[in-house]
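A brief tutorial aside. Many learners find it easier to grasp structure tokens once they have seen a single protein encoded end to end. The record that follows does exactly this for Antibiotic biosynthesis monooxygenase. Read the sequence first, then the structure, and try to relate runs of similar tokens to stretches of the chain.
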Amino acid sequence: MHAVFRRYEGVTDPAEAGRRVNEGFLPLIQQVPGFVAYYWVDAGGGVMVSISIFRDRAGAEESTQRAGGFVRDRLAELLPNPPQVTAGEVVAQA
């Protein structure tokens, strides 16, 4: 399994960002082969974090491409800063 974490800082409207992710991005990411789970977290203070879990690296990499396009096309005014992206193999889970 592979996970991708994206941390967005300076989010101008977390509620609207969440709505757009829920309505627009979730259907896109769920179509990626190997999709397991996705979470969009409001960490407060203008920080939001996404967590994507996939069965393999290829799915995780495709999710990063889709996320970049979605942010560019649908969230740019709400997420003014590029995300900090961390990705890797899941080595322990419960």
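Self-check: The first helix runs from residue 14 to 30. If you spotted this yourself, you are ready for the next section.
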